[in-house]
Amino acid sequence: MSLLSVSDLSILLKSGEGQPIVDRISFALEPGQRLGLIGESGSGKSLTTLAVTGLLPPGLRATGSVLLDGTQVIGARDRTLDRVRGHAAAVVFQEPSTALDPLMRLGKQIAEPLRRHRGLRGAALRSAVAAALDEVALPTRVAGAYPHEVSGGQRQRAAIAMALACRPKLLIADEPTTALDVTVQAEVLALLDRLAAAHDMALLFVSHDLAVIGKVTDEVLVLSQGRAVRTGPLAEVLSNPGDDYTRSLVASARRLDAALDLTPEVSDDSRGA
Amino acid sequence: MRRRAFLVTGIVLVAVVLAVALLSLFWTPFPAADTTGGRLEGPGAHHLLGTDKLGRDLLTRLMIGARIAVAVGAGAVALGALLGGAAGLLAAFANRWLDDSLAALLDILIAFPTLLLAMLVVAARGASLASAIVAIGLAMSAIVARLTRVLAKRVLAMDYVTAARTSGVSWPRIVWAHVLPNIWPTLAVNLALQFGLAVLAEASLSYLGLGPPPPNASWGRLLQEAQSTVLTAPVGAIAPGVLLVVLVVGVNLLADGLRDVADPTRRRHR
Fold it and tell me: How many structural domains does chain A have?
């Protein structure tokens, strides 16, 4: 059985006005499998991930079918979903500054899911928090810090630690590196890659950047204006884009690559300047 | 550093009034109903601040007034926070239709003059300390509700709430762990300011004769009674006025200082 099976998912305004924001997209994820969701801004990538966990903002509704770990998400009551959430799926967001409660120490935020899902208390909880921080390569002292006291990259690591604390079968990463600068971006991508492999987690990775997606997934689904325009292995999509949007996406990635190739090699000391 | 000084000054001013109010419960220079003094005596050794028209000790009446001011302020803030906070949270979670109706209701309540609302309550329930608290607390709850609604909505739109929902945290738990701590700093500052406004509102009500009835000696009533003799016995008008200013300014300074203490993201900048 698939871990996540989405079929004919559409997202519309509740008022029924206008075109569907997401129009009949379908995909499936097996346990441990990875899929990249790529598209321009406003193409419905993020809404799709919210619909998958049943967390669409008020004013929007979803139709079709989303089976998450065997539970039908669309039309389900909150109480039903509360049981699935956490065990089945967790989310890492784009903006680490809003993904963490500014008034709660990081250790407490990471402890919260550990307490609830794994039933840990006291010393066991403290060592689990330390282990969770260690897993994302954060020093233990970060547990006592408020989000504004650590850097953006550290915040995103803490957010990842929080998401992984429940040991979800599926990790949804919604542009987790977009708000970070390039060197930190690479670290966070490598971290996600390593952790997903280590815990045999399925990964739904959302991005507008082909190069970023290429670092963590092999399969991609290209969204344009709410429609799935292309799906398949990344290499195949690159060599044979098919539709216009995917072609422009690949072309722009190529242009960037070519530009980088033309630039003379940057030496280490000039980078520091 | 200047903010720190504000906070300390505020705490001192409020503490003085609080101490006087507490003291009045156990001890006053004269019994509240004692009329043995001469009429309109000036300040002296026997009556420290003099007496009023009926020969009552002014200091005694001021001390009782402090008690009433604090009681009305605290009572109205408690009522306003509870009622307003609950209504605001409800509106933040409500669907569009209920949210809009609540917002309209709150706007009407806010537009309604506090004193007029208070007169209606007093007319319905009779003048008493409880009436004053209910009237002022009701008017306050509308303002608190609107503030709570906006603040809570902002928190609910944050990714950390979505993240908590994704990991299966229930709504009551989210309100308790995320919403309340995040709206509390702003709300607390506003409530402190509202405390000052409530004290002033009670003084106005008493001045109009709609406050707690005699022998309660509210500062507003003292001001009203001293009005006709302000030229011959100015202390009677000045003293309650000064105390009102002390309490209200103290509370406002306290509110200002509280903002920094309550919010860890601002602590660093102090």
Answer: 1
Contact B169 A116 (CB under 8 A): yes
Query: Residues B241-257: what's their mean pLDDT?
Result: 91
Element (H, E) at A231: strand A227-233
pLDDT value of residue B33: 75
Q: How far apart are CA A249 and CA A254, in angstroms?
A: 9
- pLDDT tens track for A223-236: 888 888 888 888 78
Q: Is the pLDDT reported for residue A268 higher than 50? A: no
Contact call for A146 and B264, based on CB within 8 A: yes
Query: Would you call B158 and A163 a contact, using CB atoms and an 8 Å cutoff?
Result: no
State the ipTM, two decimals. Answer: 0.74
Whether residue A29 contacts residue A223, with contact meaning beta carbons closer than 8 Å, is answered with no
* Residue A202 maps to a domain: yes
CATH of residue A14: 3.40.50.300
Cβ–Cβ contact B174 with A under 8 A: no
Closest residue, chain A, to B268 (C-alpha): A149
pLDDT at A211: 81
Interatomic CA distance for residues B189 and B129, integer angstroms: 25
| Cα angle, residue A18 at apex, residues A15 and A24 outer, rounded to 5° | 95
- Alpha carbons B83 and B136: distance in angstroms, whole number: 12
The tally of CA atoms less than 13 A away on the side-chain side of residue B87 is 23
Contact B190, B141 (CB under 8 A): no
Nearest-Cα distance to chain A for B162, in Å, is 7
Residue range(s) defining the domain that contains residue A25: 4-97+170-250
pLDDT at B83: 95
Contact, B199 vs B249, CB < 8 A? no
Q: Round to whole Å and give the CA distance between B135 and B116.
A: 10
Going along chain B from its start, the domains and CATH numbers come out as 2-25+57-267 (1.10.3720.10)
Mutate which of B95, B96, B159 to test chain A, going by most A C-beta atoms within 10 A? Answer: B159
Contact B33/A at CB under 8 A: no
**Quick check: B267 pLDDT over 70?**
no
Contact (CB<8Å) B168/A103: no
A41-87 per-position pLDDT tens digit: 778 888 898 898 888 888 888 999 999 888 888 888 877 887 777 78
Interchain pair A86, B182: CB under 8 A: no
